[in-house]
Amino acid sequence: MFEDALLRASAENTHVSPRPCWLLNSLGILYDQQGNTSLAKETQQKALACQEQQLSPNDLDIVLTINELGRIARHLSHYEEAESLHRRALAMLVELFDETDLHIIWTKSALGRSILKQGRPSEALHFQQQVLDVRIQRLGRDHPHTLWTMSDIVRCFRDLGRLKCAIDLQQEIVDRITRVLGPRNSDTLWAMDSLALLLDEIQDYETAKTVQRTAFAGQVETLGEAHPHCL
How confident is the model at residue 179, as a pLDDT? Predict the structure, then answer.
């Protein structure tokens, strides 16, 4: 559908219309959802070129496409490229919004993840802590986005060798997500599994085993014994 609409729009006199840009954006998102990440990247690059021709330099749509390209680059394990794109988007966003704007917070979170993947946990932690502070203030400690950021900080702590901090924060995540989503929710069980792995790293094998057994029992009950996660 999007491909047909794009062909029709391209055949029209659209030199002052953003419609082909929007269609390219939508098509790129669709390709990504279908798992065709390389084609999604190529399509979003075309969308960005279209937007830069049609829109003002700091238009939010341009920033969102740059961030989308950064997200795709991260999924392709192109972490330096992802960092560069997210930094570019962040520089544009701070000219448009207050530091607590959710667009800025999402971009800092994505930037922190790209940096962590390049082995710079201290720098990544700097960004993720900023994200956490704003999300706690605006969304509350129990909001899923806040809990996701806490998980990002756990990974930073782990890579910094601060395992006690990582375990304490991961335990808080487990407690909060259990209270909000319930003990058998898949996110709860994954959080417990992550806690068990951290406990195993400090050689607290008995506690790790207990947590892992609880998580496994929940996965079997929720997913069934034949599910790949339970094998």
Answer: 93
